Amino acid sequence: MDSFTSMKSKLLPLGLYSLENDSVVCSELRAYSEGLDSLFEDIDILLRESFLQTAESYGIEEREKQIGRPRPDLTTAQRRARLTALESNAISACTPANLLAYIRALGLSDVSLAEVPSHSHLTVHVRDALTDGEKSSVKEKILSAAPAGIVTSVSFDNA
Prior knowledge:
Histidine-containing Protein, Chain: A; 6 helices; 11% strand; 3 strands; 159 residues; three-stranded mixed sheet; mainly alpha; single chain; 2 domains
C-alpha cells in the first residue's frame, strides 16, 4: 500500500475531511505521498543493505572495505560467502586448508603455504600486488588467524 492510500484510509473513518479525488485534502495527501514514498523506498534500500544476507550493492562494498580487499570481480553470492567466512572467524579447524580458505576470503588469490612440521613452522607466500598499507593489514589478519602453536611468517613475494 502506498502512503497516499494509507493516509486516506486512516482519515476516512474520522469523517472530518472531504476525501473526494478532486478535493484539496486529497491533493495535499498526494503531495505528501510523493515525498513519503521516496523516503520509504530509501529506508527499504537501507534496511536491505544493512544485512549481509540481503545486501546487493553498497552494503557489501562497505563491508569489504572494512574487512579486506573489495572484490567487485566476484558475484554477489561469492562476495557474501567471502564476507560471511571473514566475519565468522572462518577458521573452524586448525588446518592449512582452512587457513588458506580464510586468506583467500581476505581477497587474495595468489597465495600458497609452505609447512615445516618438524619445526612447527608455516610460511604464507602472498604473490598478489599489494600496497604497503595492504601488506601490513593482510599480515596482521593472517597472523591473528594462524594457529597459536605454530610459528607463522608471511612473505610477500611480489615486491
